[in-house]
Each structure stands twice: as structure tokens, then as C-alpha cells.
Write a structure and sequence with these properties.
Elements (H helix, E strand, L loop, with lengths): L3 E5 L5 H8 L2 H7 L5 H13 L5 E7 L2 E10 L4 H4 L5 E8 L9 H14 L7 E4 L6 H9 L3 E6 L6 E7 L14
Parallel strand pairs: 4-5
Antiparallel strand pairs: 1-2, 2-3, 3-4, 5-7, 6-7
Helix pairs in contact: 1-3, 5-6
Length: 178
Amino acid sequence: MLDITFRPLTREDLPLLCEWLNRGHVRRWWHRRHTLEEVEAKYGPRIDGVERTRVFVIELDARPAGIIQTYLTVDHPDWIGAQPGVAGVDLFIADAERIGKGLGPRILTEFMRTVVFADPAVTVCVASPEVVNTVSIRAFEKAGFRRVREIPGEWGPELLMEVERVSEPPGAPARRTA
């Protein structure tokens, strides 16, 4: 079985992140080429803790495989409003050949279990893939997200999706009570 872990992004990861962001299948949804200087300017404050978005390298069997980040919506009130207890999540898988193989839902489920909902103040996790990104929407749905509504996005309409905290992680065996 594939071991999925997350480690905080470091400055040493920025050249690799820049290379990933410029891959065609990632750039399609992140919408432009990125220079190393732009990546450092955006992600450096997150690494340093100046900005509260927490960015992680997705590791599959201890090998870097993508990026996932989480943030509180109260820190971004212009997005969907300042809602206490709501965390957003964004991710990409770096290798195109891994897309569409069921990996996204597994990554999301594990990330919500070990990072997002590990914060007891977070009760809802949201995401907003572009409405035309059906592969991403399907991955979020398989991870337990439900469709809420369309919202405006920088590059076109997005689909706001959410999943509420559950007492057991998705896919966990049901607990028996005496």
C-alpha cells in the first residue's frame, strides 16, 4: 500500500515547486508560467509563518509528489466570507501520469484526517475547483465533499465544495457500541 505523508514546505523545495508549477497539467489550472522569484515571493512568507497559509509537500512512499495547502477562511474574507471554523484546501499532484488513478481522494482524506481536522476549531473544510475541472471535482466528491454553489473565481466560475468534520475519518470501519 502507498504511504501518504505530508511535510512542511521548505525553501529548499522552492526550485522543485517552481518546476512543478510550470508543468502543463498543473499550469492549466494555475494559469501561467512561474519564475523562481515569483514562487519565492509567494511561498516564502508562508514558509516563514508571516502568512498563515500552511503549505505541505505531499510525499508518496517518502518521495515528493505534489503540494497541498490549508488556510482559514477568516484570513481570506474576500473569498467566501469570514467564517469561523472553516478551512480551505488546495492541491496538485506533480506527475500527470498519476492523475485520474484515485490518488487525489486518498491524499485529501489523509490530509483532512491528519492536518485540517486535527485542529479542533475546524469543523468544515472547503475547496473551490474551477467548474470545468471535472477531474478535480470528482476527486473532492470521492473524498466526501459535496457541491454547495458556484462562485466567481479569478479565472472563471468555481464550484464551492465542502465536507464537515466527522467523528471517524471517511472509510474508517464503523465503531461498535455496547
